[in-house]
Design goal:
Helix content: 25-40%
Number of strands: 5
Number of domains: 1
Largest sheet: 5 strands, parallel
Number of helices: 6
Radius of gyration: 23 Å
Structural class: alpha/beta
CATH topology: Hypothetical Protein Ychn, Chain: A
Strand order of the largest sheet: 4-3-2-1-5
Distance between the termini: 44 Å
CATH class: Alpha Beta
Length: 166
Amino acid sequence: MRTALIPLLLLLSSHAGAEARVTTPPYAPPQVVYDFYLDHPAKMGAALYWIRSLVNPLSGEPYGFAPEMMSIKVVLHGTEIVTVAQKNYEKYRAEVERMRYYASLGVEFKVCALAAEDYHYVPQDFHDFIELVPSAFTELVHWQMQGYALITPQVPERHHTIEDIR
């Protein structure tokens, strides 16, 4: 019995001082289309974190993809449309400026013309970094057929703080 334990102890002791390694898969620059269909415009700020959660890690080491290497489209067709109407700038200033920043990095923001019509918006109502597209669904299908990954942010309502549930 004692002789069987010796190889086990040697094996365990040889791994005791080993450091954990993080391996990084050989990612290619992303091609992503985001489907924003939010049930309340107040969720736009949280939805924009989904873009940050892709861009920031891939911009840093070990990947080092420059933003212009990434192809990112964001299709808006829910209540969040009101956040990109110029008349609502003061109310949604923080969100608009974050979108403007991402647009300066090459992220394309597209608004569904059918949904815009539901809100009685015309193309001139939107900020200059917004592109109006005929339909959110045809736009989403088009980019997926071009090989883009679809990401649909989920922004639940929080009923507890992180500190409460940790």
